[in-house]
Write a structure and sequence with these properties.
Elements: E1 2-6, H1 24-28, E2 34-38, H2 40-43, E3 53-56, H3 60-64, E4 69-72, H4 79-96, E5 100-103, E6 114-116, E7 124-126, H5 130-137, E8 141-144
Parallel strand pairs: 1-2, 1-5, 5-8
Antiparallel strand pairs: 3-4, 6-7
Length: 145
């Protein structure tokens, strides 16, 4: 089975801080599944490393609906890049016939079920990141790691 995964989970240094979030459970899935790594933030046009961002004013669904923004702590708007990255991942998932993705927990792109609240205080709220929200709208199963 083909599974799209957050590239940071298989050890690619693509996190905002230049690091990764290597997860052996995800890596071990490559023994039975074809893993397709992608970083929504990089394919959306952001560099690595990059300033930390959070969704301000809601969650990923709100960003897609134009009710919230993705901002750096200095207020720089990165919403367009996050939407572009989410759209790229959706196109990849659909073109590869993927029905399941494994994405990085709490990320403003990939978070599933909980994300940071937009205050840059490490406070979590219920909600999904931008990419997760778009994938769920298209019936794709999202697993958070």
């Amino acid at each position: 089975m083909k599974i799209v995964v957050s590239a940071c989970l298989i050890g690619k240094n693509c996190r905002y801080d230049g690091g990764n979030s290597k997860n052996l459970k995800v890596i071990n899935r490559s023994k039975k599944d074809e893993l397709i790594p992608v970083c929504p933030e990089e394919v959306g046009g952001l560099s690595t490393p990059r300033p930390a961002v959070e969704i301000v004013g809601g969650n990923g669904d709100d960003v897609l609906d134009g009710k919230a923004k993705v901002l750096t702590s200095d207020g720089e708007d990165k919403t367009a890049e996050f939407i572009k990255g989410a759209q790229y991942v959706l196109e990849l998932v659909l073109s590869e016939g993927v029905r399941k993705v494994i994405l990085k927990a709490r990320s403003p792109s990939c978070g599933c079920g909980e994300i940071y609240d937009g205050t840059f205080s490490s406070t979590l709220i219920s909600g999904d990141g931008v990419t997760t929200a778009l994938l769920k709208r298209h019936g794709i199963e999202v697993i958070s790691m």
